[in-house]
Amino acid sequence: MLPPSPSGATTEVVAAVDVGGTRIKAALVDRSYTVLAQTTTPTPADIGADIGGAVAATVKALLESVPPGQAAQLVGCGVVVPGLVDEEDGIGIYSSNLGWRDLDIRAQVESFLGLPAVVGHDVRAGLLAESRLGAAGGHRQVLFMPLGTGIAGALLLDGSVVSGDGWAGELGHVVIDPSGPPCPCGQRGCLEVLASAGAIERIYRSQSHERLSAEDIAARAEAGESLASSVWAGAVRALGQAIVMTVTLTGVDLVLVGGGLSQSGEVLLRPLRDDVAGRLTFQRPPTIQRAGLGDRAGSLGAACLIWDSL
Amino acid sequence: MLPPSPSGATTEVVAAVDVGGTRIKAALVDRSYTVLAQTTTPTPADIGADIGGAVAATVKALLESVPPGQAAQLVGCGVVVPGLVDEEDGIGIYSSNLGWRDLDIRAQVESFLGLPAVVGHDVRAGLLAESRLGAAGGHRQVLFMPLGTGIAGALLLDGSVVSGDGWAGELGHVVIDPSGPPCPCGQRGCLEVLASAGAIERIYRSQSHERLSAEDIAARAEAGESLASSVWAGAVRALGQAIVMTVTLTGVDLVLVGGGLSQSGEVLLRPLRDDVAGRLTFQRPPTIQRAGLGDRAGSLGAACLIWDSL
């Protein structure tokens, strides 16, 4: 149990916690989604053994960082995690990054905080936040595509984020080239091994023996270096194929590109728009743009989930 | 205006009308989805010019075919059509088969019948009927895949049929092989040009100069004829790829195969299940089976839509 929040002229807030493979990003968020405090801390190695304790420590640090003039009354906690999530029962079914199976996250967090908690999926929650507070406002059919070390996906269809019993959105493992390189998932030629930041770095290194970040490769592509341009163009083609497939199957009309790779901005988006436009025939052309909330989408999504439930 | 239905000990019914490229399938359906009468008539060539009159004629014939002992009181009409449909406003936005653009189907039908009408999409309505009355009962994540001259698709995700503003479900035009044969849609290697009944017939004919139906080719494949087996296997591989892609992206756990090709039954489903099982790695394996309502799915779906609206 945390000590009770001070009473008096207080603002009700929720703690919104995004537990990632390397960092925990957290915020105190009031009902109008103003962020009163936020922190980023390393994810403890044993997070699976004590997620309640880790979240409680994060929340305590958040509360302590509220400026003295502002009194915040904590009323609940939203936690979002990667992997396979049972949102209804608050269970982390499986995360390869975080190393848990069937972890009752909600029960542990509620027991540590003594407050209601909800558990969601990081990318789906991020899309929910983008649709309420970010770049997807007013859209009802959206693909949210964070491109980083891996590639994730989430779909907003007919105005609702699709869960698929927790299984929806594995865009990174849609097979783009059945004869492509093997993917750790067991398939070959998944989008993730062709177009993630990690893939771009690996492919460039395998041909140049030079270890560069995806950001540097983007800069060299922009400057016209031939190998960088060709590696970048290959990733763009794979992303274009995946987007057109998703548009054809689901009718999304907005594609929000997020994650580290989206920081390349127009170096990525311009050729991607051209590639997609060249593939579409009868389909409704989607707008392709950067996501709006950056790496705070997940924690703001956690705030949406817990406020919705209170 | 139709003459009013006889009063007295009457059953309230709706007219459920599935307007296809070649046939209009229609039924009178009561509130418990008992079919009191049904008809199949050729689609008039000028249907786009007078859809209200065509539907009214169909409904009149249905009412006249009700056995004398049963008095049916018509209370509304559901119409489902192919192509791009604005379900909210009851507009047929575009149908290449039926040759219309921006046709106000609901207004025309309501004006002819003097009763409330709703307009839906044939395949999405068929999936709705399968989920309420057919083979998808109890499932919340379903791909419905009618395989006929063309290939259509509809998705039930988190318990709701996905509309995508009318654009969702163009599974037949997901590109399976970018270097494959051209598709009338303008892309190459669409599922429809690799695995529809029409494609199977065309591919077989191009290699044998023998004109056979897909059904006959299935029988020859089952009997071990080498060309038929190879053509059939190619179609199965394309379908398997499309199913795995859909499972990965959306999390569907039930695939219902409908349309003419599904009449091949296990000759299609057995190798298709094997192909899909061989592709999946981490994904949740879907059940793959025949749809339950056959060619009545669309009209029963039209009945669901109009009963829901009344």
What would the keywords be for this entry?
homodimer; 310 residues; alpha/beta; Nucleotidyltransferase, domain 5; 2 domains; five-stranded mixed sheet; disordered N terminus; ATPase_NBD (chains A, B); ROK (chains A, B); ROK family protein (chains A, B)
What does it look like?
- The structure is a homodimer of 310-residue chains.
- With 310 residues, the first copy, chain A, is of the alpha/beta class.
- Chain A folds into 2 domains: 10-126 and 296-309, Nucleotidyltransferase, domain 5 (2-Layer Sandwich); 138-291, ATPase, nucleotide binding domain (Nucleotidyltransferase, domain 5, 2-Layer Sandwich).
- Helix content of chain A is 36%, strand content 24%.
- Chain A contains 9 helices and 13 strands.
- The first copy, chain A, has helices at residues 51-64, 105-113, 122-133, 191-195, 197-208, 214-222, 226-250, 266-279, 297-309; strands spanning 10-19, 23-30, 35-42, 71-81, 84-86, 91-95, 100-104, 117-121, 142-146, 154-157, 160-161, 254-258, 287-290.
- In chain A, the strands form 3 sheets. A 5-stranded mixed β-sheet of chain A has the order 3-2-1-4-8, with helices on both faces. A 5-stranded mixed β-sheet of chain A has the order 11-10-9-12-13, with helices on both faces. Chain A has a 3-stranded antiparallel β-sheet with strand order 5-6-7.
- In chain A, strand 6 and strand 7 form a beta hairpin.
- In chain A, helix 1 (51-64) packs across helix 2 (105-113), helix 6 crosses helix 7 and helix 7 (226-250) crosses helix 8 (266-279).
- The longest helix of chain A is centred in the C-terminal third of the chain and has 25 residues, at 226-250.
- Chain A is globular, with a radius of gyration of 20 Å.
- The two termini of chain A are 20 Å apart.
- The model of chain A is unreliable at 1-7 (pLDDT under 50).
- Chains A and B meet through helix 7 of A and helix 7 of B.
